[in-house]
Amino acid sequence: WYFGDVCLFYHWGNVAQNGRYIRVDVLEQENDPPKRLVICSVGVYSDKATPTLWPDPFLLEVKKSVEGQTCRDACMDEQLVCEPQFFPLLNKEDILKQHFPCQIIHFIEHNYLSYTPGFLTSDDSKLSLLKGDCVLNGSKELIGCAGHHENFLRLCPCRKYIKGQIALPSL
User: What pLDDT is recorded for position 14?
Assistant: First the structure.
């Protein structure tokens, strides 16, 4: 592919054998001699239709945090990066039950949203929750990689990345 005088090279062998397709969109170009900056969005997809979620959900690797650990750190412990775009895929009752022995599932719509989705490891009177309860984000807002709580195990959306460049997923 050529973008003006910039050429993008990619090893197609890996893509062809996995049955995936690549789409490259130029987002921004900056001409500042002697260098030229081209910012691209590169997507690898399982079919020719562009997914509505970027990065592609096939990159999702679900990990559980330890008590009080952020998803950022839980993913980094596995040499992965936390991908906040994937939280909607994990913020579901059936997904939570696959990973934790939930007694009751609560949907929280305000305080403590950054700890969701998660599993309570001991009673917490401040939250009015009991050990074994699971928590989902009822408002689907403010779910992020940095939240943590001393009594929670979090369900974390991780993905591989290219070393030195976390914005580009690695296959």
Answer: 43
Q: Which amino acid is at 153?
A: L
The Cα–Cα gap between 149 and 87 comes to 17
CA 41 – CA 11 distance, rounded (Å): 17
Distance CA 122, CA 44 (A): 41
Long-range contacts for 26-31 (Cβ within 8 Å, ≥24 apart)? 29/3, 29/4
- Integer Cα distance of 154 and 89 in angstroms: 14
Residue with tokens 């170009």: 29
Residues of the chain short of pLDDT 50, as ranges, are 1-17, 27-28, 50-51
Instruction: For residues 52 and 58, give the distance between their C-alpha atoms in angstroms, rounded to a whole number.
Output: 13
Q: What is the pLDDT of residue 68?
A: 92
